[in-house]
Amino acid sequence: MMLSTARLFIFTLLCSVFSATTYAYTPPVQSEQDFQQWLETFKQKARKANISSQTLEKAFNNVHLNHRVLELDRKQPEFTRTFWQYFNSAVTDWRIKKGQALYQKHRSQLHEVTRKYGIPGRFLIAFWGMETNFGGYTGNTPIIESLATLSYDPRRAGYFRKELLAALTILDQGHISVKQMRGSWAGAMGQCQFMPSNYLRYAIDADQSGKRDLWNSLPDVFHSMGNFLKAMGWQTAENWGREVKLPTGFDYALADGESKKSLADWQKLGLKLADGRPLPIEAMDAALILPYDYRGPAFLVFNNYEVIKRWNRSDNYALAVGHLADRIVGRDALQSTQPDDDHALTRQEIIELQQRLRRSGIQINSIDGIVGNNTRRALREFQTRHHLPADGYPSYRMLKIIRKQTAS
């Protein structure tokens, strides 16, 4: 049962009203009593948004403040994994082999999705593998309870109240039962981990069962992914990107992931494919990504890479999806290999790096333990001063070098 254009417009309008509403009760603390009071206010608003009383009664039966969800939402990671640590855990031999087998098994279904939406089947399998291990684990947190908890918490209440309303709309339309509506702690659902609002916009009833079932129906899952990626701007005739080799003395400031040049212009700058062959002669623009330091892989990425990032904004995620899709159809592994000294920086080590950069006389605005453009710029300035490859990458190797240079 697809949401009509009119109903979708009404739903979007109601979401706007919901997010703009000033609630009569703003919880000063996270307590079960306050949560239940807030929930009663929310139910009144949901009824005005045409969610049926029957759905609300079923959805919120035995719903409590989920402190584990709050803990996960607020948790600050002690360290950020390096590209290699993330990549090696994402693009495993098991995932490649499993993806290849499923790609062959579902070839006819995937071909139909490609014909209709223009998305090659290898990417659908790659996303499926990355999101839920090919449907092996879709999450076991009750979606209504997790979204209600995050809606009550003032930190990102506006966003999650819209998602909660979307989840209630899905239940009201009869696509899934409350008991079956389980997923990630943050509200992502089904084998492709759509948030409820994306479910309403992009989920497809491909098997014509009358329900858009992203938990149990592979036709619905594949077509919904294809519909989403097409809507995000997927270019059928383009690949996602290619691993490339950079020339000696290359200006790493060009590897910002944003500055686009034609393949011909990149070739003039000395770039080649990772195996040493010339870049293809195609009328395409590409940006350069360097996810590690100068010893790691480099990628020329095309428009579809940005589409992948509209699913998940992480460069590491997008590179893993693209490469996994390549491996599923038998393309080569990365030419670059993980160095022996690969080591993730802790937040405290990043703070130390920032402090030492400032101590060396380089302007750096924030000492916050977060690696952003400001930190990379400062690091690149330090590297240039000391005649090092100016890749701007905050590695443990660079921290040790900075320690030596700023020892006092």
Give structural notes.
By secondary structure, the chain is mainly alpha-helical. The protein contains 18 helices and seven strands. The protein has a five-stranded antiparallel β-sheet. The chain has a two-stranded antiparallel ribbon with strand order 1-2. Helix 8 (121-132) packs across helix 15 (315-328) and helix 10 packs across helix 11. The termini are far apart.
Question: Can you give keywords for this protein?
Answer:
single chain; 408 residues; mainly alpha; Muramoyl-pentapeptide Carboxypeptidase, domain 1; 5-stranded antiparallel sheet; two-stranded antiparallel ribbon; disordered N terminus
For the record, give the distance between the C-alpha atoms at the N and C termini, rounded to a whole number.
69 Å
Helix content: 40-55%
The shape, in one word, is: globular
Rg over CA atoms, rounded to whole Å, is 24 Å
How would you write the strand order of the largest sheet?
4-6-7-3-5
The sequence of SSEs as H and E is: HHHHHHHHEHHEHHEEHEEEHHHHH
Largest sheet: 5 strands, antiparallel
Structural class: mainly alpha
**Total number of strands:** 7
Total helices: the number is 18
Spans with pLDDT under 50 lasting ≥5 residues? 1-28
Strand share of the residues? 5-15%
Mean model confidence by pLDDT: 92
